[in-house]
Amino acid sequence: QVQLTESGGGLVQAGGSLRLSCAASERIGSGRAMAWSRQAPGLERELVATCSWSACMTYYADSVKGRFTISRDNAKNTVTLQMNSLKPEDTAVYYCAMASHYTATTRERDYDTWGQGTQVTVSS
After folding, report:
1. What is the DSSP letter of 30?
2. 55-75 pLDDT tens trace
3. Which conformational region is residue 109 in: left (phi greater than 0), alpha (psi within -120 to 50 degrees), or beta?
């Protein structure tokens, strides 16, 4: 029943930055984890960043490590993904997700609530 709504996607030149936001319709809570995942054309969905809600213990895929930063705001029930030094290969639909029953997990199958996604396109 929790709804996740992503925003902030768009078109950006290589080397530029974007900040994605995800708003939850209800309180998220410390017993859950949040994540950003992406799916590029012709490729399988890839979990790119996760954040345990209580302390935001983070995980990053190797492909984005050092360039992307995930963070959360407990009071506002939002999670963000700051994307810097963007590359054309970052082009994908980015999804916000929540694992309702895990404090921290990097297993994509544990995430049971998903947003509709927001398109990120990086031009060369």
Report:
1. T
2. 899 999 999 999 999 999 999
3. alpha
In the three-class reduction of DSSP (H, G, I as helix; E, B as strand; rest coil), residue 67 is classed as coil
Determine contact, residues 61/48, Cβ cutoff 8 Å: yes
Tokens of 73: 């705001």
Contact 51, 71 (CB under 8 A): yes
How far apart (Å, rounded) are the C-alpha atoms in residues 42 and 4?
25
Contacts of 10 (CB under 8 A, 6+ apart): 18, 119, 120, 121
Q: Which residues contact 44 (CB under 8 A, 6 or more apart)?
A: none
Q: How far apart (Å, rounded) are the C-alpha atoms in residues 71 and 62?
A: 18
Q: Are the C-beta atoms of 85 and 65 separated by less than 8 Å?
A: no
User: Could you report the per-residue pLDDT of 105-117, keeping only the tens digit for each?
Assistant: 999 999 999 999 9
Q: What is the DSSP letter of 11?
A: E
Which residues have CB under 8 Å from 77's CB, separation 6+?
A: 23, 24, 26, 27, 28
